[in-house]
Design brief:
Blueprint: H1 4-9, H2 13-31, E1 44-50, E2 61-67, E3 70-83, E4 87-89, E5 94-100, E6 103-110, H3 115-118, E7 124-127, E8 130-136, E9 141-160
Antiparallel strand pairs: 1-2, 3-9, 4-9, 5-8, 5-9, 6-7, 6-9
Amino acid sequence: MKGTKEWFLGLKWWGKLIVGLVVLSAIGNFFDGSSASNTTITSTTNTTVAETPSSTETPTTTTTEKPKAWTEVFQFGGTGKKRSDTFTLTGAKARIKYTTKGLCYIYIVPESDSLEKSGGFPEIQTDGPESGGSMLAKDAGNYYLDVNGSGAFTIIIEEYR
């Protein structure tokens, strides 16, 4: 059986090149301190707390970070065909949660538009009693719900803030 040195010397020039690139890549990854496994991404919002200064100190401000969470933006319920009041989406990740007691079509319509004018496809369509949720792909803006159902329904719109 050949040793490592004899094996390497027996390689053609392109084989030696590949082995060299693999070794250099491994060395580079070993010394690189920004590997993906060490990276943490955190989304936060800031809350400012003012501290009371003593008579000789100047005021200081401390910033506390609050993690994001799903926040209810709008809730709507009813029976049959209903149109809601308007609500605002900020452009953050959004989702819809719903419970229906029968057949139900749920549309999310821009405030300046209507189904009668532009038509559309329902965000949610149920064929009977159902509870569930779905992510929304909506730009920032004002919207309303246009719901056509054969039973009672409850709808919640949330954003990740």
